[in-house]
């Protein structure tokens, strides 16, 4: 949705041009316009690449923008393009995203793995999201004959150590984010992936996920949780591949066990609290879930306890440790 530009917006855009580096701009914005709505800023920034004093781009600008994207597609590094054109890397990145969509630097290349044994569900649910968000480097793991736990292991073995992988299940209907206190359908999934991998890289963590459901807006902390054991749920999650999850014992609740394994290894997992997912879960096996929950609770008794057919994290592991937080900006 486009923004109708007012005088304050023009001043914000002047700040963007004056401070192309993200940290500098955020500091200037906080000092001069501390109450400027974040959601409006996001929409406004999407229009920067389409503006010539807030109008349509001139022919020269269009030619320059096309040349920038062509150079990126040829593999030329962003810093070299910036030096040639006397522009900041941030401006190059905004021009590329605003005019030509999803272009990623080499350091943010990631693959997408979709787990599915139900082609009809995939066609109705997750695949339309893949098309809507223009996801690339997609592999679909479909072999119904392979047990779930072996398919999980196969995905980890399929990718190299330290590969960045987005893992999706076939029944994801929608991904939402909270903006101005309300849940709204996500515009760009690439931005979520970048945020997940940035948090993991800068925090030396290796798995990330989303909030499992739409809590009321006043209950939502939008800052990422890092050094605590918030469970990372299977339908939408992100890994920097360490091949830690070897031969899971059970076909149920693999995401619970994977979360604990990564928490024990790294001292934390990432949960992006301002995003959530709507998933059409298949039939629940309450008897099987209860049995597995009890076994996992015994296996990881210092971290989890059983609650009916489900598992809960012990309270002491839910407290984020701010002293370990890195600077993310």
Keywords for this entry:
single chain; 329 residues; alpha/beta; Spore Coat Polysaccharide Biosynthesis Protein SpsA, Chain A; 2 domains; 9-stranded mixed β-sheet; two-stranded antiparallel sheet; disordered C terminus
Please describe what this structure looks like:
The chain has 329 residues and is an alpha/beta fold. It folds into two domains: 7-103, no CATH class; 107-324, Spore Coat Polysaccharide Biosynthesis Protein SpsA, Chain A, CATH 3.90.550. It has helices at 7-18, 22-32, 38-46, 59-73, 78-85, 89-100, 119-124, 126-132, 148-158, 189-203, 254-266, 286-299, and strands at 111-115, 138-141, 164-169, 172-179, 182-185, 207-211, 225-228, 236-240, 269-279, 304-307, 310-313. The strands form two sheets. Strands 1, 2, 3, 4, 5, 6, 7, 8 and 9 form a nine-stranded mixed β-sheet that branches. It has a two-stranded antiparallel sheet with strand order 10-11.
Largest sheet: 9 strands, mixed
CATH architecture of the largest domain: Alpha-Beta Complex
CATH class of the largest domain: Alpha Beta
Q: Spans of 5+ residues with little confidence (pLDDT < 50)?
A: 49-57, 100-106, 322-329
Into which percent range does the helicity of residues fall?
A: 40-55%
Distance N terminus to C terminus? 26 Å
SSE order = HHHHHHEHHEHEEEHEEEHEHEE
In the CATH hierarchy, the third-tier topology of the largest domain is known as Spore Coat Polysaccharide Biosynthesis Protein SpsA, Chain A
Number of domains: 2
> What's the overall average pLDDT, rounded?
75
Rg from C-alpha positions?
Answer: 22 Å
CATH superfamily of the largest domain: Spore Coat Polysaccharide Biosynthesis Protein SpsA, Chain A
Helix/strand class: alpha/beta
């Amino acid at each position: 949705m486009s923004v109708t530009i007012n005088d304050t917006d023009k001043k914000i855009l002047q700040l963007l041009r004056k401070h192309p580096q993200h940290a500098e701009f955020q500091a200037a914005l906080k000092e001069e316009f501390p109450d400027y709505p974040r959601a409006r800023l996001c929409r406004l920034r999407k229009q920067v690449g389409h503006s010539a004093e807030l109008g349509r781009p001139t022919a020269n600008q269009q030619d320059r923008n096309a040349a920038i994207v062509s150079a990126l597609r040829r593999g030329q590094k962003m810093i070299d393009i910036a030096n040639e054109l006397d522009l900041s890397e941030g401006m190059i990145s905004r021009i590329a995203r605003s005019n030509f969509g999803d272009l990623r630097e080499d350091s943010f290349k990631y693959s997408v793995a979709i787990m599915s044994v139900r082609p009809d569900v995939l066609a109705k649910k997750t695949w339309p999201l893949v098309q809507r968000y223009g996801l690339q480097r997609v592999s679909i793991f479909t072999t119904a004959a392979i047990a779930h736990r072996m398919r999980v292991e196969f995905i980890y073995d399929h990718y190299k150590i330290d590969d960045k992988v987005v893992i999706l299940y076939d029944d994801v209907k929608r991904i939402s984010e909270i903006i101005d206190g309300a849940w709204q359908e996500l515009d760009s999934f690439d931005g979520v992936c970048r945020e997940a991998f940035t948090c993991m890289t800068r925090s030396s963590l290796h798995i990330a996920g989303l909030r499992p459901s739409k809590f009321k807006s006043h209950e939502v902390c939008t800052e990422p949780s890092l050094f605590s054991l918030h469970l990372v749920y299977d339908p939408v999650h992100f890994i920097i591949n360490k091949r830690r999850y070897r031969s899971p014992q059970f076909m149920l609740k693999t995401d619970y066990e994977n979360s604990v394994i990564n928490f024990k290894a790294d001292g934390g997992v990432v949960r992006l609290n301002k995003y959530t997912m709507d998933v059409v879960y298949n039939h629940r096996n309450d008897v099987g879930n209860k049995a597995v929950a009890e076994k996992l609770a015994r296996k990881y008794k210092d971290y989890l306890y059983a609650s009916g057919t489900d598992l809960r994290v012990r309270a002491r592991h839910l407290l984020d440790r701010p002293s370990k937080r890195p600077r993310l900006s």
